[in-house]
Amino acid sequence: MIDRWKIFPDREERLEELGRDLVNAGYLRGDYLLSSGVATSYYFDKYLFETKPGILRRLAAFLAELVPANSDRIAGPELGAVPILTALALETGLPFVIVKKHRSGSGQTLVAGELYQGERVTVIEDVISTGSEALRTAREVGGLGAQVLGILAVLDRDEGASEKLAAAGFHVSSLFRRAELGL
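^ that's the sequence the OP posted. Answer follows.
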């Protein structure tokens, strides 16, 4: 007889395994300069874990559990959050919008995709450090008349992003915190 618990480990074991896989795939040591301008001795290269289907699929499944049930749509910044948005949209059935960094030549909105006034939107981010990109995304979405339910990140580097975003009035949650990964 097959022991189904060995085939389907419990949620916490699967989450811990995913955390180890994120670290193994994307955690780099060295001298780095983050997009915020902060120098650091380590870096999480989101593309090293977001481009692996086995990791991305599991990320979407766990993130889907954290998306508020009353969300009408998800949103995230280009380029880094796009793979996660896509996988999460497929997992949840929620449509998404991409918040661009720069306006196109025609001066149109920074949001790619459909976004309607009054929609309830959850902002998705990959790795948050200072929270600046997540804050910019949430403000852009809110500025177009949507209600931002919160910001959900794959990884919080524990460098003040959660506090900064909360001080700006946003609920913040993350699948992993740096400290929880033993780093």
